[in-house]
Amino acid sequence: MASLIDGKKIAKRLTHEVAADVIDFVEQTGTRPTLAVVLLGDDPASCVYVARKLAACREIGITSVEHRLPSTTSQFGLFSLIDQLNSDPAVHGILVQLPLPHGLDPSTILDRIDPRKDVDGFHPVNFGRLSSGTDALVPCTPLGCMMLLESVVHNFKGLHAVVIGKSNIVGKPISLLLLERACTVTITHKLTRNLPDITRSAEIVVVAAGHPELVKGNWIKANAVVVDVGISRVSGPDGRPRLVGDCARQELSHARAITPVPGGVGPMTVACLLANTVRAALKQHRAQPTLRRA
Ligand code: NAD
Q1: Does domain 29-115 have CATH number 3.40.50.10860?
Q2: 196 CA to middle of ligand 1, Å?
Q3: pLDDT for residue 166 is more than 80
Q4: Which of 207, 251, 255 is nearest to 231 (CA)?
């Protein structure tokens, strides 16, 4: 029977470690790590995500400041807020909640954030650093996926890892992280041919397609480790909505380990945002790397 990788437990442990780092940071610098969260409009899902992130910061003593702007905000208006946050030494991290309202180009907006404050790790400078294996702020979801994998895989060298999905926020960065650990990585997407044959040869499968229960039992070889990033709301047999991942989990009992949905990758994403905020704060203060997760 495949073991479940408990994302809630691992995220809780990471959050405790980051909370200890916050205490050390305050002692060393006399300031608190501070995250600015920018939310445009009132998309209900975005409001929930932002509220969760702000609450998580509060719980461990990271100062979080919410900047709510109307959905009609122009690119110029958003740039001027980002510029102000970039130049404010009291702000260590900046997060612009996606998706942005229609008419605003996310990549132009994200490129405006100071890469040192880019706690989402989406800036091209951080992506470039990740690609070259140098010190980057790594996007939270792939960073969390790696930590989940590390909880069950002790030697990544030479393992075949198949990543399903090539998005900039999950598929590409997790592929780079796996490559950095010396896996042989195959990146696949919706036009990939013979996907089941490709995944069947993998020891590690990370699926981030947003396609409910795409990965069937006969796509996965025995003892593979599977990280299911996808999260979709579908109608259950009783007509009630339920959350499902990109894997038909009940068919994957022959895998070695798999992340559940919910309770797998999701909790890690928020915990990694906290970790990235403290990391960004530390780098900006050029503190000696004596903190536990520096
Ligand atoms: P995206 O839509 O940007 O990218 C999806 C990728 O999957 C694309 O590269 C596409 O080619 C590929 N794909 C789609 N259908 C496919 C198929 N049938 N076969 C093979 N490849 C296919 O999505 P994203 O932002 O990378 O997110 C992917 C999923 O992960 C979504 O369900 C999203 O909600 C979830 N997600 C979860 C978290 C979390 O914290 N738990 C964070 C980010 C994304």
Answers
A1: yes
A2: 17
A3: yes
A4: 207
